[in-house]
């Protein structure tokens, strides 16, 4: 089932997709079954007519930095051959100001260098509150999956002490287009295209530590809440993104997150 | 004016304090003047009877890591004499799962070491959305100020790659008791007491970079939203906190944030 978030009657609203690309708006959130009922008097709306929002605004925005060996090789080991693969799951954070819906433009500040890259990522959305969750039961806490683009300015990533600008500049975190509740993690494939040309392709589950292991580990210290998101890292590398490029991140079984790149001119 | 957040009629509710420690509940939030009106039919409630919540749940939780020279000396330079003072404002992040109201217990996990420390911090709460804010106009974007305790497990802080557990374990971010809208930044003093005994005392504004400079710098890349919080760092150091200790962080002109420390027993 596909769950979306969009503007409806002037307010952010959740809805689910039914046949023929129609979307049924609901009142409340999809994370509580009790609330998830059609909005009073609401008729299904064509998907194509919607003003999409990010599918969820998390209370906490978790992100895994190093979870595919080919990405550690190309991004980290290239400048420091001593970088090791992680020995245990550790989690980082991103910031909500940077979230951007499917279809909206990634805006690169004028003072950024040419080294702006995409990172296509599987995103697990938490559906059920929990702490001290076992690895065996971890996936019961997942509501569904969506797609993230962890846009990164690599020069800032090396010089910023905390990756603040490199990862969290406004519009640097596209997420969407929707949450899919039925996914086969083992069968998924991630394909990233720039202007329609395939640039990066990998098996989504080829992670050093998988979704269940991450949820179990971090929940030993953190309570996970409905709507929290866990970005699972990326593989490979990216060409430098240029003004006008369109980045499509497809994860089979979910869909495609598409965003255009706009470089802000100097002197704005 | 003091703004609080608390449970009222079963829901999180904002209110403001009037004379004789009475609190007037409002509907909406204090960040929008339009919404900030007394809740229909609500009578003032005694402060002492309230179930307090953290005064705001931020969309993005910003935190300054190194902003007082005495703290850089005692925490960072002690293990690495080469650590330099920051040359420009850079910002880090904390996680909402860790937020804890005034009066609630800081719970230290059984596997933490003895090296658990307080950090008494001024917290600026954003009241007005903005980007590309000048330093001159930055304080117009502040709604008010509250107090934070950036509880830190120093052993994990050295070994965790991202400070995930060391800073963000559940209950490690007490914040409160309220937001004060009228503060004289230059006159404030921070006093931290453990079990009533003064342990750390410093002039609050003795920062390397002040509130206005930080807001201006980060808003060159980030949109700041009403309710976002900016924890401004701490001075000095802390003794190791023990089971049963009560930590009071007073910032003159705001109030006192008080939390008891509980060490979770092994085998829980």
Task: Give the helices and strands, then pairings.
Two copies of one chain form a homodimer.
Chain A: E1 2-8, E2 11-18, E3 22-27, E4 37-38, E5 45-46, E6 61-63, H1 69-77, E7 92-93, E8 99-100, E9 106-108, E10 116-117, E11 120-126, E12 142-149, E13 152-153, H2 154-159, H3 164-168, E14 173-180, E15 189-194, E16 197-203, H4 211-218, E17 229-231, E18 246-251, E19 255-263
Parallel strand pairs in A: 6-17, 8-14, 9-19
Antiparallel strand pairs in A: 1-2, 1-14, 2-3, 3-4, 3-5, 6-7, 10-13, 11-12, 11-17, 12-14, 15-16, 15-18, 18-19
InterPro entries (chains A, B): FAH, Fumarylacetoacetase-like_C, Fumarylacetoacetase_C_sf, Rv2993c-like_N
Cofactor (chains A, B): Mg(2+)
Pfam family, one (chains A, B): Rv2993c-like_N
Could you write a compact summary of the structure shown?
Two copies of one chain form a homodimer. With 268 residues, chain A is mainly beta.
